[in-house]
Each structure stands twice: as C-alpha cells, then as structure tokens.
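Design a sequence for this backbone.
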C-alpha cells in the first residue's frame, strides 16, 4: 500500500506530538531493534524512531533498511527523527483520508 501526499500530511500532523518509541544507538540496526520496531508498528501503526547515526547518508540507509525489514512506509525525517507508518491488516487504528 502506498500513501498519498494528502495522507502523508495527515500522518505528519498525527505524529507531531509523539515521542520516539525506539532509539537506534551505537550498535546500529540489530535484529533486536528491528523486532522492537516491528512490535511497536503492530501496536501503534504510526511511530517515531530516533536514529543516532553520524551523517545524513548513514541515517538514510538505516531508515531505508527499516522500511525494507518491517514493510513500513517512511512518512518523514527531520534531523535524527524518522516517522514510520504500517497499517494494521485487521484492526486499523489510524483513519487515513482518501
């Protein structure tokens, strides 16, 4: 499922007040971190992740890896914070506009 620009704006507004639920530290993107992100996406659908990486390219590669591993969509990145969305297949919690 791809999300439209209108839906991205809506998700950005919903994510504004959220705090990061997962922090990627010095060990990088380990299987345990991927598992925690997967669990958080299953519970909340929309989450923030703090990516403590050295430079912009490294942060970008980590966010791309998270999207690939969890089948989530990147909503936005601001600095070290990335917002991800993955719709729950049976019980969606976030209503997206058409």
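Sequence:
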């Amino acid at each position: 499922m791809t999300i439209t620009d209108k839906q991205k704006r809506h998700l950005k507004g919903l994510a504004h007040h959220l705090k990061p639920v997962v922090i990627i530290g010095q060990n990088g993107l380990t299987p345990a971190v991927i598992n925690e992100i997967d669990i958080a996406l299953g519970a909340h659908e929309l989450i923030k992740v703090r990516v403590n990486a050295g430079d912009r390219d490294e942060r970008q590669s980590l966010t791309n890896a998270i999207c690939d591993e969890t089948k989530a969509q990147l909503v936005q990145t601001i600095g070290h914070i990335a917002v991800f969305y993955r719709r729950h297949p049976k019980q969606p919690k976030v209503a997206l506009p058409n």
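The longest strand covers residues 46-51.
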